[in-house]
Structure formats: structure tokens, C-alpha cells
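Provenance

Sequences were taken from public entries as deposited. Structures were produced by running a predictor on each sequence independently, with no templates supplied. The record for Cytochrome P450 72A15-like from Durio zibethinus is shown for reference.
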Amino acid sequence: MRATYFQRTAKLYLTSPEESSIRLMLVCQKLCHLDNFGPNRSVRNASSNKSTTFNCNNPQYLAIFWMDFFVLVTTSLAFILLYGVARLTYSIWLKPKLQERLLKQQGIRGRPYKLLVGDMKEFVRQITEAWSKPINLTHQIVPRVDPFTLDNVQKYGKVSFCWAGTRPRLIIKDTELMKEVLANKQGHFQKPPLNPIILILSRGLTTLEGEQWSKRRRMINPAFHLEKLKGMIPVFSVSCGQMIEQWKKMASLQSSYEIDVWPELQKLTADAISRTAFGSSYEEGKKIFHLQKELISLTLEAMQSLYIPGFRFIPTKKNQRRKKLDKDITSMLRNVIQMKENGMRTGQTRADDLLGMLLQHNNQCANGAEGGMTTEDVIEECKQFYLAGQETTASWLTWAIIVLALHPEWQEKAREEVLQVCGKEPDFEAISHLKIVSIPLHEVLRLYPPVIALYQHANKDTKIKEISLPAGVDITLPILLINHDPELWGDDAEEFKPERFSEGVSKASKDQLAFFPFGWGTRTSIGQNFAMLEAKVALAMILQHFSFKLSPSYSHAPYTVMTLQPQHGAQIILHQI
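Predicted structure for Cytochrome P450 72A15-like:
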């Protein structure tokens, strides 16, 4: 009997298209007007001018209603699913293969695309193997620090590609092509899309693009003019002086003293940026940067895991801790900014630190056509001070100490110059005359750059010279490989030869673009003069008071965690002069 009922129902359902369309109308009406839907409904067909009456309480028509509803829902879901599958297939397979074919058609070689993961497995394998053991005391560090990029260039040439997941990444080691990318005349290149997790650290200048970046750069730039930075040298001296006094106390207990300078120089640069950024609010700045250091550590830990969109919003213990740290840092910075603004307004505080100079210029811009930055913008730039100003300079100074410990002849030359030129504490005049100190610092920056590569992203279809690039391609400019390239630096490229910089940076290599540790073009680092002054002051004061050599416990193991760092520390033996 049940079979007969459903057969009748199906027969009713599979009648004329006219009645089927009427029933579909009734389905929609019943869905939209359930409260007003009576037991009988008459529907007139416009083409035939006939009226059809349906008894909506009839079990047969109720069955038809639910069957129509089921077809409507399943058809919609099937369409959505089909569309989603098509989009997914295009994103993870068809688009990468089309991009791969376009690159290969232009003679660019690279690794074949692997579904979803790209070259991640190979990258992790090579890095894990390279970082598993230290190397000999040599400056040939590229195979350990960046084995994957080196392998790609050696196999496929100066212009080659690999895969960052589903995105092709073009590795460019050709200086002429690099100029095109860095000049960015058409505005088609920007930084690659950032992992949303890292944006919790700062949304400051380095994360901006286009007109937003240009406007913010113009507002911040005056605070980093060399004339303004001259006043920072006494502040650098105070920070460095405190560190040296602590070292003296430790060294006074014995004729020589072993110390790991990597954490020491991290503390030095954190102290210096706290003082130069916040001036009279220095202690509050130290607390903020202490919290920011913890936030950086948690963020880097999260970035080493597989990225799952939206996972950062799940209230796990670490996600909640990151959220609280960000909230506390933002709140403390807002208080410091308000105190500084109030002090400047009443004349109780001078604009002689980075924050003060930034606020002073921002107030001037606020009255102009462009307008100034909001308090939230200033907060993000304060976060950026620490990110950009602490880790990179600490890395540079650490490798300078290690390299000068390896090359005592240059350590002695630099010390002689410092003792001749500088007084008890170096001032700007003395620092500007330290030529011998400057050239080994540049050579260390060449051999051990804090940032080993620059990254760009093509946001539109574009061309570099004769190479056509589809939108979505990432670009890697491998600074470390370029800095160690014999074609650009000569056969002694892997050797410590500071004299190559004796006639200036522009004449140190065969190509002016072979050395760009602070970037190149319009996006050159705004803090390069700040970093150079701080490094020269710190190195000069250390040389004034100590000689040093590498400890037998030191293991030569450079690797990258945001910056180029000594994996097992930087142990040296200090001798007080």
C-alpha cells in the first residue's frame, strides 16, 4: 500500500511542467508565508489563463511539497559543493600548474609543483640536516644558513623558482633584475601577504604599502634625520657604559672571564632602544619591551606550526596569552604616549627622544592637508621601534665581536684608532672619524647580514626586463648568497677582508647593488643611520676597555630566527685593559 501511495505521489510530481512550476511556487510561498498559508490555494497560470486549485492539507501534496523542498535544497547544496570543489581544484592544482608552465616557457627552471605542500618538506629536511651540527671556524656559512636557496640556485641557475605551498617563488640572484624589482617603478611589487599571526607584533611602517606607506614614512622620517640622531649618542653611551661596568665587575674577580655576548648584546640594544624611544619613560619602556619579547617568542612558536585559518581565535592557553600580552602592551603604550603629550603640552617634557620627535612632527602634520597619525598608529610605530631596532643591531654586534675575536689583527687596529680618536666617552665628532672601525663593521655586515633575504610579491601581472610574471608570484632576493658571490666580490668573497670597503661601499664590489643590507631604493630602512651609530658607539666602548678572543666552548653555528643568530651562543674570553 505504501508503495502505491508513493507511486501516485511520483506520478503527480512528474506531471506537466506547468503544474510542476506551480507546485514549486507553492513551495516557495509556503516557506515564506507559513502562517498565512491556508488549506486551499488557487494559482492562475498566466500563459494558459487556467486556474489550478491545490488542497495543501492533502497528504499527496504535502509529500510533493517536501519532495520539492528536498530537491531545492539538495540542488543548491550540490551547486555550492561543485563550485567549491572547482575553486579548490583551481587554487591548489590548475593555477599553480599554469604558473609553472608560464615560467618554464620563458626558460626559467625550477622544482616541479607538489600538491599543497610545494617544497616545504624538502626545505624542512635540508634546514634540519644543516642545523643539526656546527661548522668549522669559517666564513663559508651559506650552506648551513640557507641550504635550500643555495641548492635551488646551483641546480637551476641565477633565476629559478621553487614553491611556497601553492605559490611559486622566483629566486633572483641577477643584480640587473634585482634593480627592476627594488625600483618598483610600476608599483606592481609589494611585500608578500603576511601570516595574520605575525601582525599581532606590529602593524607599523614595514607592514604598509602604497600611499599608506608613503604618508607614514614622511611623518616618521624627520625623527631619524642624522642631525636628530646626534643627540642619541650620549644615550647609547649610558646603555653601553652600564654593560661595561658589569663586565668589569665580573672580570675583576679573575684575570680573564668567559661570557656569552649574544644575550648581553640583546640586553644592551633593548636598553638603548628603551632610552632613545621613550626618554624619561625609560623604565616603563623596558617593561613594555620585556612583554614584547615574550610576545615575539610565542608568535614565532606559533608560526613554526602548520597554519590553520582562524585557529588563532580558538581560546587555547597560548592564544589567550598572546591576546593578553598584546592588550597589555597596547594599554601601556597608550599611557606612555598620553604622558608624553601632556608633558610636551605643559613644557615639562622635551621632544628629545624618538617618541617625542614623532609626536612633535605628527602635531605639525595634523594641521596640514594630509593630517597626522592616530594614537593607534603611533602605538604601532612604538612596537616597530623595538622589532626593528633591537634584534638586528644585537645580531650585527654579536657577529662583529665573534669575527674580531677570530681576527685579532683587525681588533688591534680598530682599538688603536678608538684610543687615538675617542675620549673617555665617544661623541658624534669622534664617531664620525672612526674609519678603521667602520670598515670591519661593513665587512661583518656583508658576511653575516642580520636579514638574509628580501621578499616581494607581484600583485598584478607584470614584467621584469623580458620576464613575464603572473600575479601572485613571490620573489626572493637572497642577500646572503649575493654577499658571498665570487662573481661580485672576487675569489676572496668567503674571506674576511675589511680593506675592500676602504674606499667606501660603492667601490667595494663589482656591482653597486651587491651590498644592500638595509634594503635599496625608496624602501631603504629608515633606521640605518640609527643602527650604524649605535653599533659604532658600542664597539668603540668595548674596544676601549677589553680585548677578547673566542672561548674553546664556542661552536660556530649561524642560523636564522627572524635574524641571523649564533645557535649555541657567542662565548668569548674577556681581558680587561
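Residues 559 and 565 are 5 Å apart (CA to CA).
The radius of gyration is 32 Å.
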